[in-house]
Amino acid sequence: MSFFGLECGRQGNREEERRLKANDRDYNLSFKYATNAIKTSKYNLLTFLPLNLFEQFQRIANAYFLILLVLQVIPAISSLSWFTTVVPLVLVLFVTAAKDAIDDIHRHRSDRKVNNRKVQVLINGELRSEKWMDIQVGDIIKLENNQFVTADLLLLSSSEPLHLVYIETAELDGETNLKVKQALTVTGDMADSVTDLAAFNGEVRCEPPNHRLDRFTGTLSYAGQKYSLDNEKILLRGCTLRNTEWCFGLVIFGGQETKLMQNCGKTTFKRTSIDRLMNELVLCIFGFLATMCSILAIGNYIWEVQEGSKFTVFLPREEGVNAALSPFLTFWSYVIILNTVVPISLYVSVEIIRLGNSFFIEWDSKMYHAGSDTPAEARTTTLNEELGQIKYIFSDKTGTLTQNIMTFNKCSINGKCYGDVIDYTGQRLEITEEMESVDFSFNPLADPKFRFYDHSLVEQVKLENAEVHAFFRLLALCHTVMAEEKSEGELHYQAQSPDEGALVTAARNFGFVFRSRTPESVAIEEMGVHRVYELLAILDFNNVRKRMSVIVRNPEGKLSLYCKGADTIIYERLHQSCGKLMDVTTEHLNEYAGEGLRTLVLAYKDLDEAYFTEWKQRHHEASTALDDREERLNELYEEIEKELMLLGATAIEDKLQDGVPHTIEQLAKADIKIWVLTGDKQETAENIGYSCNMLREEMNEIFIVAAHSPEGVREELRKARTTMKPGDEEEDKFVSKTILGNIPKIIPDEAVSGEYGLVINGHSLAYALEPSMELEFLRTACMCKTVICCRVTPLQKAQVVELVKRYKRAVTLAIGDGANDVSMIKAAHIGVGISGQEGMQAVLASDFSFAQFRFLQRLLLVHGRWSYLRMCNFLRYFFYKNFSFTFVHFWYAFFCGFSAQTVYDEWFITLFNLVYTALPVLGMSLFDQDVSDSWSFEYPQLYVPGQRNLYFSKTAFMKCAVHSGYCSLVLFFVPYGALYDTVRNDGKDMADYQSFTLLVQTCLVIAVCIQLGLDMSYWTIVNHIFVWGSLAMYFVITFAMYSNGMYRVFPASFPFIGSARSSLGQPCVWLTILLTSILCALPVLTHHFLLIQLQPTINDKVRLKVLQAKAAPPPPPKRTRMRRTSSRRSGYAFSHAQGYGDLVTSRRYLHRPVKPRSGGFTPTGRSLAAFNPAGRSAGYSPTGRNQNPKQEVEPTSLQMYRTRDMDF
How many CA atoms lie within 13 A of 419 on its CB side? Predict the structure, then answer.
């Protein structure tokens, strides 16, 4: 459901500061703040007709035809009936109005659905159910679990301890991991007391409405105290409340003023580049039409002066008309006659073609995603051909390139790599969905969605390999994940990031199940045994430390520190005996990094009780210090996190959507540049760049722009540009391009030797987008093969798109799946939404939508290219056909005394575009294709001509006009010469007006059909029916209209009685038709032949290969992941935000205590006290293991496996 409107924010005086009082509507209404209602519709019943007609007549062609209609009702100048113009004009206006009305009805329904949602509001001391649209700023509302957040709220209280709430921001950014917000203690203590909340009269003073989703500043004044407000206390509209029974919030911003709506961007009417070119060409055609009419008017004046007086005896002039007035009337008469240079049927046909190609996209079964039951959808039917000209793609990351799912793929434990599948020959196999995964049925608490394919690791777990057990024990203990058990054995983990969730889930499946936590303890199931570890300290993660540690005491009283973090950080803190193991683990890490996996190193350390007691006292003093608290704590962390023993490493895959690397590779071959604009941090974005093969180590260089000042950013950009193009001038380069009097600056593409990548973060991008530096940034970015912008706001995404649109002669496409992508999607020429995900805001704002990123290559390389090719072929042919039709009138004027007499029958003029030539050209425009879809994928380079406008341009238009001029000369003078002084078989004269008209008409219809056949590459049964059927229809209608019967019924309308029978029965007429057709087609055939031989296009070359192959291209070879190593580390496999350590170790529970349970495993199986993880040297696997004594109790399922293995 759309939360977006067409305009974002109130108009009028700019608000400097927002002031509001809780529970005081009268006070808040005095400021005239926006209500919570949204309006995205454009019309209502009263405004629809005038406003829609006003918009339609802003199109030059529609206004032109309206003027023509007015001229045609003036008898003195009209030589054609009014219905020749009014019928097609009314048809176009009606079809367009109906389409606009349907679209606006959908918007009205969407608005009503959102505005009429119900929420509980505190009014006059009681909770009432009110519609969203009736909510006012300053109201206190109650939200319940799984409800959408109604407006931008200040969190007052919640059902959770510590006044926390958990929200899901999938509607905002496509991310499904939960985020935590916390209320002020002073408001949180009111809990759900309606009395206290109704008495709450706090005053909020804060920033005015703005687009910054990640920032909020304000103050709350209450009970004589002032409290600071930040983004951690704000719930934004578009979020969803999760895992929280209820919460109360104070409305700060409503409706159009919410941060979500401020980021929506303006809804603009999108037009294709062909539409814009057509407007320019139409203006040129009008000028050309005026020139032709002026020439003919001058000719009329000369003829009237020199010859006209001789005819006045038997052809007297109308009253009041003389030789001076006649040219003026003749000018307007020829404007009417020659108006077919821009026929209104052109626009009707264009809309039909676009609609048909939109249906092809929606009907394409290869773009249907069965998993989510989501077909592709063309939400806008006017932009299809633009899909064949894309030069820049701007993509979101989370939910667009990735699935936002982290999977535990591989690990290295004690120098041995696990995760690969090895066959009997010792070769590694490519892991596929069909491959048999590890059977975790022995573990009743295993996550059924977890997949792992290396059976050797689970065997090591069952054989009680000490290092493997220590490895998974660390993963089960060292984290800040929250566990929720809704029913017996049904565990749900709420992780700060998907990475941590994946690691804890992996430990869970391998027998080390994290069950619950309190601020003082962590409870886990170890191979069926319930064990509670005392949690003594959490040394939390941050961006500087790049590691996390926990200090725990096991049930046997042993103290241990478990640590996980980046390899470079952990390696500095390892015991010197770990050298050999560190070398082996580094090899594994390089291999993981080469595969684009996110790596993490695990280590541990046993602690001395006396030392830890003394260290804990110093830690307490440092944590309560008023000065230098952070520095003192970091020193203590550094002190204790030393002499660690290496356990191994993990490799997490940020799971890409299917086919993403291949799609990006194909688009790159089509010379399409892809920029990733993401809100994620730099490490995460870089990691995805490598996973998608957008960034490669083979690149000459990858530039990182991360300066914190304008001067620093400018220097880094210039340094990058100088590296790519040494000796490059400092001044900006532009190419002037005049468009309707405007001269915008166009930055040309600059060639560089080699391949480069650019990564720029959010704060640097903010400087780079300033007017003084935007061209510097754009030049540098456009020289790179890949550009990744990190930590960008939704508005910055739109600004980057607008920057490229403004200074590059290129068509842009933006693709995303969340509300934070909406402004970018609206700003680009084409917006694509990924549907079937949690958030649907991007889909509602998009022009096209589908479920998977991989469908983008089919949308562009097949449907987009075909649509553009078909539209260009249509326009070239249509202009050729109508110019040829119209120019014959021009030549005829020199032989009819410039009298504005038509060379054709009036009915032929009416039916030529509507009946005789409409279906053949529509058939070509809907079904033609130069090569099949499979060959289009085989040669993505076929896409390049569309980017360069090679199929239709001003040059192509001029060639078309010249070709039409030649054909019109042939069509007029060959029949004229053939009938001149010609007699029929019976000796009667044949050179009459009606016979000449019929011959020219027939030659024209056949010539344009031959030209259509030469232009068409792909003949279907439909094309055959349309072409031959239209020719047959012409002769049937001609014989019918020129029959005696029609003349008797309508003598004034059908004067050509018997002309068809008389003329078409003569051999010389058919010989003339044959000669005319050959003369019209011969230059075209010659031009095509010479072009293919001397200067073949990429299309000609591929079509030749298709003919030589005589079959579909071979299926693409099975893509296997290339194994390579890399010293570059992927993003660290845990959250890149400040951790929740302080919350976890606070003196209150984060979740209510879970109910007592017996557990999935029998907790009395065995003791692990005999395991001593410190009893090995790094790199050395002990040969002897302490075996647990046999238990007298019934063994668990895990123990039964172990017993069978040992007995074997």
Answer: 20
Q: Are strands 246-253 and 152-158 parallel, antiparallel or unpaired?
A: antiparallel
- Tell me the whole-structure pTM to 2 decimals: 0.78
Closest to 898 in 3D by CA, of 182, 327, 105: 327
Rounded-to-integer distance, Cα 766 and Cα 762, Å:
6
Q: What is the dihedral of CA 739, 742, 745, 750, to 10 degrees?
A: 10
Judge whether 1124 is annotated as a binding position: no
Looking at the DSSP assignment, which residues form a beta bridge with residue 535? 552
Q: Hey, what amino acid is at 507? A: A
How far apart are the C-alpha atoms of 146 and 394, rounded to whole Å? 32
> Does residue 565 contact residue 600 with C-beta atoms inside 8 Å?
yes
Length of the chain: 1208
Q: Please say whether the beta carbons of 1139 and 546 come within 8 A.
A: no
Three-class DSSP labels, 792-806: CCHHHHHHHHHHHHH
Task: Say if residue 598 carries a ligand binding annotation.
Answer: yes
> Please, which pLDDT band fits residue 728 given cuts at 50, 70 and 90?
low
Q: Annotation-wise, does 680 bind a ligand? A: yes
Residue appearing with tokens 């008017």: 297
615 neighbors 636 (Cβ within 8 angstroms): yes
- Pairwise CA distance, residues 725 & 718, whole Å: 10
Angle at 481 between CA 568 and CA 819, to 5 degrees: 90
Q: List, for residues 1000-1042, the tens digit of each pLDDT value.
A: 999 999 999 999 999 998 999 999 999 999 999 999 988 888 8
**Residues acting as catalytic residues:** 396
> What is the C-alpha separation between 901 and 79, in angstroms, rounded?
7
* Secondary structure of 424-448 in HEC code, one letter for each residue: CCCCEECCCCCCCCCCCCCCCCCCC
The answer to the question of whether 339 is labelled as a binding residue is: no
Give backbone dihedrals phi and psi of 721, rounded to 5 degrees, phi first: -65, -40
| pLDDT (tens digit per residue) in 544-582 | 788 899 999 999 999 999 999 988 889 999 999 998 999
Name the token pair of 394. Answer: 């701007």
Angle between helices 865-893 and 326-337 (to 10 degrees): 150
1130-1143: average pLDDT: 55
The helix or strand, by DSSP H or E, that contains position 668, with its residue range, turns out to be: helix 660-669
Residue 797 annotated as binding? Answer: yes
Residue 113 counted as an annotated binding residue = no
Residue type, 475: L
In DSSP notation, 577-639 reads GGHHHHHHHHHHHHHHHHTT-EEEEEEEEE--HHHHHHHHHHHHHHHT-SSSHHHHHHHHHHH
Supply 419's token pair: 């995760």
476 to each of 16, 126, 506, 515, how far by Cα in Å?
50, 46, 9, 9
Q: Is 216 annotated as a binding residue?
A: no
For residues 218 and 216, what is the distance between their CA atoms, to the nearest angstrom? Answer: 7
Residue 949 annotated as lining a ligand binding site = no
Is the model more confident about 753 or about 7? 753
CA-to-CA separations, 49 to 66, 98, 380, 774, in angstroms, rounded: 17, 11, 22, 43
Both tokens of 416, joined, read 């041995």
Task: Inform me whether the pLDDT recorded for 1162 exceeds 90.
Answer: no
817 is in an annotated binding site: yes
Q: Is 242 exposed, middle or buried (0-12, 13-18, 19+ CB in 10 A)?
A: middle
Q: 88-92, 418-422, 434-438, 1048-1052: lowest mean pLDDT where?
A: 1048-1052
Q: Are strands 645-656 and 402-413 parallel, antiparallel or unpaired?
A: antiparallel
CA 168 to chain centre: 21
pLDDT of residue 7: 37
Q: Is 992 annotated as ligand-binding?
A: no
R_g (Cα) of the chain, nearest Å: 38
Supply 798's token pair.
């739109």
Q: Give the helix/strand (H/E) hosting 521.
A: strand 521-526
Cα separation, 246 vs 434, in Å, equals 44
Q: What is the DSSP string of 1086-1097?
A: HHHHHHHHHS--
